[in-house]
Specification:
The chain has 150 residues and is of the alpha+beta class. It has four helices and seven strands, in the order H-E-E-E-E-H-E-E-H-E-H. Strands 1, 2, 3, 4, 5, 6 and 7 form a seven-stranded antiparallel beta sheet that branches.
Length: 150
């Protein structure tokens, strides 16, 4: 799939802003993806098309994979979602737990992007340890496959 003009423009803006705040990032401009690290968290910021004239900025992190998805864990994730300002937890088809925030590309400013990306990295870096300690699984950093997310 080819990149749209709004997607390319938004990605250039996002990359410029993130390079100021994060020295250790891995951009993939041909995919409109950026890989970031903080503590034990690995996050990806991606810019996807949203219709023909808009783009969507998604900041997401695989928090834990392989956890025991018992009802008490799922309830815990929902309760944490209710407390979050930017983003929330989800469970993917493979059973991995992700944290994700979405922003509209055309109206996003640097402050909003920074808040959303920080929220994703902080949540993943904090909750991965807590989830693994109680419900098992592996943190993203232990899987050692971040480039496959790009």
């Amino acid at each position: 799939m080819s990149l749209t003009m709004p997607q390319k423009a938004c990605f250039a803006k996002v990359l410029t802003w993130l390079q100021v705040d994060y020295a250790d990032l891995t951009p993939a401009p041909d995919l409109c993806r950026i890989l970031l690290h903080r503590g034990s968290a690995i996050a990806i910021v991606r810019v996807d098309p949203y219709g023909e004239q808009e783009s969507l900025i998604l900041a997401e992190s695989c928090v834990v994979s392989g956890a025991d998805l018992r009802p008490d864990l799922l309830r815990f994730l929902l309760e944490q979602n209710a407390r979050k300002t930017f983003g929330g937890f989800s469970v993917r088809r493979d059973g991995s737990i992700w944290y994700r925030a979405a922003l509209l590309g055309s109206t996003c400013d640097r402050l909003e992007l920074t808040a959303a990306v920080t929220s994703v990295l902080d949540a993943a870096d904090h909750y991965d340890n807590e989830i693994v300690a109680i419900w098992g699984g592996m943190r993203a950093v232990e899987r050692n496959q971040p480039l496959s997310w790009l």
